[in-house]
């Protein structure tokens, strides 16, 4: 069973949606194309990568979860975990 944002919004209560995207996503374009219900507070979390010395690496599970938890705790409207540009 799939429950979507419209199903959650039917109750009329205020709620928050944290949309997690990848490093190559265009956050402004994504938000522009979505229809967000009035009782929904929309937030974006973009997962990037880590630069170390002469190379880059993907985020670890621990880094991803810590970044997402921080964004939720601080109610960030837009949060980038790691970096998205070299």
Description:
The structure is a single chain. With 86 residues, the protein is α/β, with parallel strands linked by helices. The protein has one domain. Helix content is 29%, strand content 31%. The protein contains three helices and five strands, in the order αβαβββαβ. The strands form two sheets. It has a three-stranded parallel β-sheet. A two-stranded antiparallel sheet has the order 3-4. The longest helix has 13 residues. The protein is elongated, with a radius of gyration of 15 Å.
Lay out the secondary structure.
Layout: H1 5-9, E1 15-21, H2 27-33, E2 40-47, E3 49-52, E4 55-58, H3 61-73, E5 78-81
Parallel strand pairs: 1-2, 2-5
Antiparallel strand pairs: 3-4
Q: Nutshell version of this structure?
A:
This protein has 86 residues and is an alpha/beta fold. It has three helices and five strands, in the order H-E-H-E-E-E-H-E.
């Amino acid at each position: 069973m799939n429950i979507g944002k419209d199903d959650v919004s039917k109750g009329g209560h205020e709620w928050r949606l944290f949309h997690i995207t990848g490093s190559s996503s265009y956050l402004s374009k994504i938000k522009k194309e979505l229809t967000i219900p009035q009782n929904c507070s929309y937030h974006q979390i973009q997962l990037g990568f880590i630069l170390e010395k002469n190379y880059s690496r993907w985020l670890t599970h621990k880094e991803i979860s810590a970044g997402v938890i921080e964004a939720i705790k601080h109610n960030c409207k837009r949060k980038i975990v790691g970096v998205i540009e070299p």
